[in-house]
Design goal:
- The protein is of the alpha/beta class.
- It has 10 helices and 17 strands.
- About 30% of the residues are buried.
Length: about 300
């Protein structure tokens, strides 16, 4: 190999993260190889010393107490067990350019939230991640259009797990599946989420999931109706309108003011559900939510004016 073609490496450590810098064929790239005792929120830069950060090495963040991590648009791949035993990791933000993830990347994680920005279409590694995480997972998907518009979808993948049960007389071990999450994880085609198939699973979820998950599935699909067909919209609306006590309570507890505004705009509240939400906001001292709900009550259920007979 000629001297000019030889790949050379240099390692540097910045803010507790060690990068391996290399140059080959005129392309400069950086690989995250390890990190120190990182905690809390971590943001990986797009460039390091003029090198594009394109990959995470195997075990690069294993057993660290990070809670959230933002990956750069330049990132392409992550090695196996990259987040192994990151027990505190709950939130991951990345782009559709991140497509290659090694096996066991999320072993020992209880990831709860994903945010994905799409710039090149609708394919992503979402399918791989939800297959690795058996717990309930909330995913925000932002589709960036050439004209500057951003269309957003927010979907929930319920928890699922398998249980091996022995049929003792027959000496046969049977696999029992619990929760609708396994079915939701199959609503992909060619690494794209098929929203029609996702929405078609709601009747199954009604039979297997609790009210909190169902209220989130319905609420987020209505609030962010990306590729939402009319029949599915009607099903979600009917469910949510009949379960506003649960939906209102959890939105107040999370202080999700945007969702509470949405409930008012779509006139989903019943008087009883709104009063309960107001009571919850008052008890938990959620003052912004309380003010918003009181305003909605005045608008949706105005009190009768007193009249006097002369």
């Amino acid at each position: 190999m000629k001297q000019s073609e030889r790949q050379e490496y240099e390692e540097i450590t910045v803010n507790g993260i060690t990068y391996r810098l290399s140059e080959e064929g005129g392309l400069r790239s950086a690989l995250v190889v390890s990190c120190g005792d990182l905690e809390g929120a971590v943001v990986i830069p797009e460039e390091m010393e003029g090198h594009k950060v394109t990959g995470l090495a195997p075990y690069a963040f294993s057993a660290k107490r990070i809670e959230s991590i933002v990956l750069p648009v330049s990132l392409r791949s992550a090695g196996r067990y990259v987040f192994y035993r990151c027990f505190s990791l709950e939130r991951l933000i990345f782009c559709d350019t991140f497509t290659d993830i090694g096996a066991g990347a999320f072993t020992g994680c209880r990831l709860k939230e994903l945010e994905i920005d799409f710039y090149q279409g609708e394919q992503s590694c979402l399918k791989f991640i939800v297959d690795e995480i058996r717990y309930a997972l909330w995913a925000t998907l932002r589709y960036h259009r050439l004209d500057g518009r951003v269309e957003t979808a927010k979907v929930v993948f319920p928890e699922h797990y398998e249980e091996a049960v022995e049929n003792t007389p027959a000496r046969i071990v049977e696999t029992h599946y619990h929760g609708a999450g396994g079915y939701y994880r199959q609503s992909f085609y060619n690494r794209e989420l098929n929203f029609r198939e996702y929405d078609a699973l709601f009747p199954l979820a009604l039979a297997q999931e609790d009210e909190e998950i169902l209220a989130d599935i319905a609420g987020y699909r209505l609030r962010f109706p990306y590729r939402l067909e009319k029949k599915a919209e009607e099903n979600y609306f009917e469910y949510l309108a009949g379960h506003m006590k649960q939906a209102g309570r959890q939105s107040v507890e999370r202080e999700d003011l945007d969702m509470l505004r949405f409930f008012g705009e779509r006139k989903l509240w019943s008087r009883e559900a709104l009063n309960q939400a107001i009571e919850t906001a008052s008890e938990e001292k959620k003052l912004e939510a309380l003010a918003l709900l009181m305003e909605q009550k005045r608008n949706l259920f105005p009190g009768r004016r007193k009249t006097f007979d002369l």
